[in-house]
Give the backbone structure.
Amino acid sequence: MSARALLAALMMLWAAPALAEPPAATPIVIGQSYRLPSKALGAERTINVYTPASYAGGGKRYPVLYLLDGGTDQDFHHITGLAQLGGFPWGSMEEIIVVGVETVDRRKELTSPTADPALQKEFPTAGGAADFRRFIADEVEPFVDAHYRTSGDTGVLGESFAGLFVVETFLRAPGTFDRYVAISPSLWWDNESLSKEAADLLAKQDGDKRSLWLSIGDEGREMQSGMDRLVAALKAGAPASLDWRYEPRHDQSHSSIYHATAYEALRAFYPKPDTEGSR
């Protein structure tokens, strides 16, 4: 056997134990997951909770952002990543708790009923938004407040059908949250019925201070029409106490807008105490 072959054989023998027994793995943990029994939905549902880096070190209370489509295989990881990025000491956000509310049948849970036969055929389970809203308001929020140090400041974030749910909640049940972020909301749903009601619903709102962020990409007339109608209603009749912003992003598409706009909205609505921003 040549010296080179002998050396190679010895190296393989030396490396074999390392290959056979890799170092013990340690899980990467960024939060906690819970299965909650829900009377509103008649089933158990999963929520995922992210707490910021400083949470374990004191008694501070934190704002809570409720994230729709918040499953670990949905939007939980990338939105909590934005919260972590902004909450670094050199970042531009205050630290927040993020509660991901998982959807199971989002076409049901995030939409209002429709009388349109074509939509009923295409989306046979649709129309469960009111029950899902009760689940969040009456079951999820009390659970989070009971088990985490929350400040009482609440927000909600959603995109597409989840954005539709955000807008509907803001218009029909505005006291549910303090801050609303709707990205590319599917306002085309039910022939734009929600946008058509917006002016009347805005006129009924109280004077409590709230924030609303709307954004949409270059997504075609079907998506844009309902947004234009909603923005017109806000320009004409938004309550004086409402801090609302419309940020169209025509450089983005429906599939790319979420990350860019979500971070902008979070930075605006959760600025560090020593920086200027909303609320």
